[in-house]
Amino acid sequence: MDVLTDFPERLQVGGLLYAGDSYLPLRIRSIRPHDKVLLIAFEGLDTPESVGEYRNQILHVPAADRPSLPEGEYYHHQLIGLRVVDDTGQFLGVITSILDTGGANDVYLVTSQENRELLLPDIEEVVLSIDLNSGEMQVHLMPGLLPNE
After folding, report:
1. Which residues contact 63 (CB under 8 A, 6 or more apart)?
2. Mean pLDDT in each 10-residue stretch from start to end of the chain (149 residues)?
3. Domain that holds residue 28
């Protein structure tokens, strides 16, 4: 299994994972690292054929099982769909994707109602506040961030 989580330590024998779009529960029977992947056996899946139906499936963990993040840090799924407004209150669009640049910060892809795209770096000079309760991110548009500037 390729591991996409930032918290692989939560994958433990006896733990539950949920397979595919139907979220079929699978209990971990054994787990061990192998190169850059994990070899996992599930209870009740004892033959290569029974395991084969789960090949290339995404395995999910319940949201309640995810570790808490420090103040000011968010999971990507919490940010997707947030309304984005600038510091004057102008609606810019909605976060439709988050680009992991592999560098110091992520970049938010904001899509307007007219399907125009805006890339905003996740830096404190740009992202002023995030309010998950209201579903809104407030940003400051530094020179050069808007297209045609």
Report:
1. none
2. 79 89 91 88 90 86 78 88 95 94 88 93 94 95 78
3. 8-65
